[in-house]
Amino acid sequence: MKKIIHTPDAPAPIGPYNQAVMLGNMLYTSGQIALDPKSGELVIGDIKTETTLVMENMKAVLKAAGMTFENVIKTSIFISDMGNFTAINEVYGSYFNEATAPARETVEVANLPKYVNVEISMIASL
């Protein structure tokens, strides 16, 4: 049976979806963008600041499910400009132990919700 994960410490969904869904010991998160969870405002401009907020939002969702970044087994990173890859990767990498980092893909896309520069989703397991 699936369990809906929700926390006020991450942005509320802006459509017909949930922050995350737990099925058994598996957690599937929706993509997080740089929305401030308190104000609901976008924080874009500096790519490192934007990526940090995305990761902090994801951290809150993982915490609500009783997990940490150590539980993450797969991530998907969508970026609007591959030229930002190095800066995004630097911030992203600071949240993981390189020896146990999850599998990942990074894809440049034509556009993202609210015209942000980065969106990240994760799959985690207890």
Task: Give a structural overview.
The structure is a single chain. The protein has helices spanning 47-64, 85-93, and strands at residues 2-5, 20-23, 26-29, 72-79, 103-108, 118-125. It has 126 residues and is of the alpha+beta class. It has a single domain, classed as RutC-like (60s Ribosomal Protein L30, Chain: A). The chain has a six-stranded mixed sheet with strand order 1-2-3-6-4-5, covered by helices on one side. Helix 1 (47-64) packs parallel to helix 2. This is RidA family protein. One of its GO terms (molecular function) is deaminase activity. Belongs to the RutC family. InterPro entries: RidA, RutC-like_sf, YjgF/YER057c/UK114.
- Overall shape: globular
* Assigned CATH architecture: 2-Layer Sandwich
How many DSSP H or I helices? Answer: 2
Give the termini distance in whole angstroms.
16 Å
The biggest sheet, with number of strands, parallel, antiparallel or mixed sense and barrel status, is: 6 strands, mixed
Overall helicity: 10-25%
Strand content: 25-35%
Kindly provide the radius of gyration, computed on alpha-carbon positions and rounded to a whole number of angstroms.
Answer: 14 Å
Order of helices and strands: EEEHEHEE
What is CATH's topology name? 60s Ribosomal Protein L30, Chain: A
- DSSP strand count: 6
Quick one: CATH superfamily? RutC-like
Q: What top-tier CATH class fits best?
A: Alpha Beta
Give the number of domains.
1
- Summing up helix and strand content along with how strands pair, one would put the structural category as alpha+beta
Give the low-confidence spans.
Answer: none
Spatial strand order of the main sheet: 1-2-3-6-4-5
* Average predicted local confidence, pLDDT: 97
InterPro entries: RidA, RutC-like_sf, YjgF/YER057c/UK114
Family: Belongs to the RutC family.
GO cellular component, one term: cytosol
Organism: Rasiella rasia
